[in-house]
Amino acid sequence: MSSSPVPSSRMSWSRRDLLRAGGFAAAAGLSASFLASCSSGGDAGGSASAGSKGRQKMTFQLSWLPTTEFAGTWIALNKGYYSTEGIDLSWLPGGPNASPETVVSSGKATVGMLNSDAVAKAQNEGAPIKIIAALCQKSPFCILSKASTPISTPQDMIGKKIGVAATDQTAFDLLLTLNNIKKSQVTVVPVQFDPAPVANGEVAGQIVYYTNEPQSLEVRGIKTHTFLLADFGYTVLSDVFFATEQTIAEKPDLLASFLRATRKGWTDNIADPQLGTDLAVGTYGKSQGLDAKQQILESKAMTDLIVTPAAPKAIALPDALMTATVATLKKAGINTSVDKLFNTQILAKVGV
Q1: Cβ contact 58:258 at 8 Å
Q2: CA 318 to CA 322: how far, in whole Å?
Q3: What's the pLDDT at 112?
Q4: Residues with pLDDT less than 70, the chain
Q5: Measured between alpha carbons, how far is residue 216 from residues 8, 196, 237, 292 in Å?
Q6: Comparing C-alpha atoms, which of 87, 66, 74, 227 is closest to residue 145?
Q7: Which residues of 336-345 are buried (b: 16+ CB within 10 A; e: fewer)?
Q8: Distance CA 71, CA 266 (A)
Q9: What DSSP character marks residue 288?
């Protein structure tokens, strides 16, 4: 997992749970043969052969394992949206030991997905990549509490115990700074990534992912309350699509076609979250034994991050959010600029 201040998302299986278990393939129960078999996606369940029917081959490097985090991709594959755009799409699973920025930079994948901070850090280390679009207009970081004792704003945390995992500390500290709260005003309790401390009353709140830990409690019958860090100054575009500068220059139409098909898939999932859930649980992520109840809640929660007043359609790069993302990253110690981090020309070719 990235050590960046905005770690990649933790979907049905907590990414961090897998890290604790020790290794991608072993922890997830995935063999090399499984990874090979699931890394090619056709129009229906990955059955089409590469380059068939004259379509142009391309590979999408996922930021994580195949869950409903990629519902739009599964729908676009299943409904043939990529084929219609002239693309024969393959996909590669991510994981705690995967490095999407390295895979894309090396040419082993055409497009990858990460969070803005990870792309910015990779750029600063010499990776020739740029963000071409963003799926999530809001960061999935949130403060989780029980519905019976809700914490609704950063100010509500003052005087309370808040659970913070080590890799979430930077994000939490930045939230405090952005909202003029001194560290001494909040009691930080070191936790892992299970939301049990909230459920057991050990802490009043905990920094978690909006699309994961709340759902894990909800399926256990524990009512929860959350507020997004993004609604209180923590603005970071998340689940961004990126490609190399060379691919952007040489294959802009291919990238635009990919985004267009993916947007159609996400538009379908927003209208009916069950679509992506069924495909994740029953087809693309079947071997993982995903929890269908948790996955549908996750699928619905994704919509809250994807569709916003600034981005009423799936997959966008609003000017204000690009500027705010750069400002937030700089406060987190990652220096970049809008021109360096983003390329808006591909998304402009996608159309409305």
Answers
A1: yes
A2: 6
A3: 98
A4: 1-53, 352
A5: 18, 10, 24, 11
A6: 227
A7: beeeebbbbe
A8: 7
A9: G
pLDDT of residue 19: 32
Contact present, 340 and 126 (Cβ < 8 Å) = no
Q: Residue 167 has what pLDDT? A: 87
What the block records as the tokens of 57 is: 């081959």
Give residue 299's Cα distance to chain centre: 12
Sequence-ordered list of residues with C-beta below 8 angstroms from that of 277, at least 6 positions apart, any chain: 68, 71, 292, 295, 296, 299
Phi-psi group of 160: left, alpha or beta (phi > 0 → left; psi -120 to 50 → alpha; rest → beta): beta
Q: What sign does the CA torsion over 157, 160, 163, 169 have?
A: positive
The per-residue pLDDT for 341 is 98
* Rounded Cα–Cα distance for residues 80 and 36 (Å): 22
Contacts with 147 (C-beta within 8 Å, 6 or more apart), sequence order: 223, 224, 225
Predicted confidence at residue 3, as pLDDT, reads 33
Q: What residues contact residue 138 under an 8 Å CB cut-off, 6+ apart?
A: 228, 230, 231, 235, 238, 304, 305, 308
